[in-house]
Amino acid sequence: IYNEAKRLLPAFMNVMLVRSGEKKIDFSGVNLIVGTHALLFHELPNSPLVMVDEQHRFGSNQRKKIEGLASSEDERANFVQFSATPIPRTLSLIQSEIVNFSFLKQMPFKKNITSQILGTSEFGFLLTHIKKQLAGGFQVAIIYPLVESSESSNYQSLSEAQGFWLKNFKNVFVTHGKDKEKEEILRRFREEGEILLSTTVVEVGISLPRLNTIVIVGAERLGLATLHQLRGRVGRNGGDGYCFLFTKLKEAPARLKEFCATNDGFKVAELDLKNRQSGDILNGFFQHGATFNFYDYEDDITQAAKARVAEFKNKF
Question: Does the pTM of the predicted model rise above 0.85?
């Protein structure tokens, strides 16, 4: 975002990038501040506009603190949040009309992504698919649930599995969230790699135009929002993309089957709300789960009530 802001904004605008680990920062004369969670630990200047991207990756208290850091007693910042897959509580707030919202329905380019659940018996099919895509000049990412082995997991970890891929394929790159060389490895993979072995660290903040296949190992262990974000890494140039959900379960959960049936992030969020429920929409302590009885937003009585509220608003 920082690089794009520098490229697109007028030269007279001063853009600052705040990295983790930086302590005393002088924000005077800055027009746009770009940063991560690190901004939570700084005294920010009052701002007319605060934007949070990938909103579902921030807790309610974190978002509230970010908004408060840029506001004063007299002026409150305009607070805009972006998410391709709102968490259950956020979607519940939207459907309750407690927050204002806009939907961006038009994609920057057409995405044709095929999502499919695979079991252990279909590993041969997966290898054939991977070899075909690599022969076509594309890249493949394989996402593992853990870096190291664990007695609580019946899936291979990243460290356990990498030997097979390094032995049978060329140009294999390996990284994870704690890897200090992660950014350099991802840069090299983008330019010369064929297979990337990683954890969910590639969920956001990475552009890999040639990546057209992603394999998610132990997919049932991940939330739908994370699955959708990972799926969004492929087919980013408008070509065909493939997302394989690998599971050892004899019967795949219904939510994974429903996930494979749609590429719409908002529908994925609705599935998440249906499965996990809304949580506490008042203070956000619970991000999901039922804390009180609530109506089905699609039933007739709720729709009729909302129509009456809209009619009342129009009279005044």
Answer: no
